[in-house]
Sequence to fold (242 residues):
Amino acid sequence: MVPSGLTVVPAVGPSREPAPAMLVLPGGGYARQADHEAEPVAEWLASLGIHAFVLRYKVAPHRHPEPLAHAKEAMLWIRNGTHGLAVDPSRVGVLGFSAGGHLAGSLSVGLRTGDPWLDQPGARPDLSVLCYPVVSFVDSVHQGSVDNLAGEGAAPELLGGLSLERQVDGCTPPAFLWHTADDEAVPLSHSLAYTGALAGAGIPVELHVFPRGVHGIGLAQGTPGAEQWPGLCAAWLSGMWA
Fold:
């Protein structure tokens, strides 16, 4: 069965050989999903020869671990499902923006849902692309994401457990991150913390920081500096999936 809220955008070009796939998770503070971070991004990925799957995952009033369970279900279906596309199951990644970046990171660090069927190695992506992601739930927090996912007044133990920089391990996949230095909604410190944790664990990571750009610029067309990220990311993906 196709997971709910999933849109499929097949890779452009010949499909005789299995192609990589990417789960796309739009941002929206765990309250909604931003449309400009959804299908337009999937179409860009498809133009690179990557099958793209956009998930409009569960948001508030649903709390953790429901969005994570929804995303894991989608990851497993992409890797093993009956979608009719020639997907290489060894090359399945995740790309997320803002709160969607937090969800992508949650998949990457292997946060658990409590459901053994979902909490299996195949639910972890093989790489991740995190775009101005929410990372920490304890430092310089994006309060909307915290309240919508964990609930107002959540226990410190839960907030620490949802802070991705504290959960990186040796099984966390390589990552490409980008952020703008003047992001006032989700500070650059989030991407720096995750990058530092990956580097400390010996995980390959690439980070690009652009000087200007408001939060939520998606593909960043027309934003000097930040508009370079799709090309930089395409080069990184080509190298990782060569």
Notes: The mean pLDDT is 96.
